[in-house]
Amino acid sequence: MIDEVRLLAVGPYGSGKTTFIAALWNALMDADKSALAVDSVTDSDKSYLAEIRDRWLKFEPVGRTDVDRHEHIELALRTDAGQRLRLSVPDISGERVERHVIDRSWARQFDELVSQCTGLLFFIGPEVKDPHRLDDAQLIAAEVADVAADAASAPSAQSVQAPLPEWTADICATQVMLVELLQLMTERRAGHPLPAVVIISAWDIWRDQTKGPRNWLRQRLPLLSQFLDGNEQLPCDVVGISAQGGDYTSEQQRDHLKKLAPHERPVVDDGQAVSHDITRPIASLIARMARPNAR
Q1: How wide is the angle at C-alpha 207 spanned by C-alphas 203 and 213, nearest 5°?
Q2: Do 59 and 262 form a contact (C-beta atoms < 8 A)?
Q3: How far apart are alpha carbons 148 and 134 in whole angstroms?
Q4: Tens of pLDDT along 87-133?
Q5: Alpha-carbon distance 241 to 255, whole Å?
């Protein structure tokens, strides 16, 4: 048994980390329904966790967090078997993830977490920005060439070069951003494997439209899927999670959720079975650490 498992939760803005943590804290508050127990948590973190849990229990979107007010959560936990683990969520809002990729740098504290963690919870949100297809780019290039040729042949043609638009993260495809982030993290670990669980959030949106979360990843984010499949440094499982349990804006779904006990609301789908145990990804990650070379 590892003395202390160190888990790191990472994901961009809108990837569902805060809602997951709210549902997890609710489970941890009900010892009879959780396979994990809390060893310690700071008063500041406890206050914040109580706040987002309260909103989750009231069927209110947890929403955007105030980065300046609370940006880091750390929970000391233990399993039924006595395994101690520490869960760090260094960027609750996820707003700094884009800066990691754009600037190719991060804070010293985050660097220490990346280098020292033994497992990764990697969150992906439901809103995916698709890449520009090569055939689309070729059509656009052909149109630009035609326009340029027409302009050059005009009698009063003047050579005017329009300024190129500045690159921003807003135009970067989701899977490119995620792959780059994972590459930066694995490079920092200097060859040490990083077992991971990839969590696809808001799974209630996709559950009936695809055959399991790993298949969704292959269809919607093929670059990321291939990167994970071929990367021995990132042995991983893929799960779909709806920490809310459904769409709060749908009156029908909201009425259904109100009939359930709070611990029954989350949906966790690993492609083999579906449960309501929000702690299951953590258990899966601990099990993955025991077989790091399994694909």
Answers
A1: 75
A2: no
A3: 21
A4: 999 877 777 888 888 888 898 999 999 999 999 999 999 888 776 65
A5: 20
Residue 131 parent element (H or E): none
The helix (run of H) or strand (run of E) holding residue 135 is: helix 134-153
Local structure of 194: helix, strand or coil? coil
Element (H, E) at 275: strand 274-275
Q: How far apart are CA 1 and CA 101, in angstroms?
A: 35
Supply the DSSP string of 58-125, one letter for each residue: TT-------TTT---EEEEEEETT--EEEEEES-SS-TTHHHHHHHT---HHHHHHHHH-SEEEEEE-
**Closest of 227, 280, 207, 240 to residue 124, by C-alpha:** 240
Instruction: Read off the pLDDT of residues 198-240 as tens digits, 9 standing for 90 and up.
Output: 999 999 998 888 889 999 999 999 999 999 999 999 999 999 9
> How is residue 124 written in tokens?
């992906």
Query: Cα–Cα distance between 119 and 182 in angstroms, integer?
Result: 13
CB 185 within 8 A of CB 177: no
- The type of residue at 84 is R
First and final CA of the chain: distance in angstroms?
22
Cα separation, 256 vs 113, in Å, equals 40
Written as one letter, the residue type at 210 is T
For 203, the token pair is 């799974």
Would you state the structure tokens that stand for residue 216, as one six-digit string?
A: 């969704």
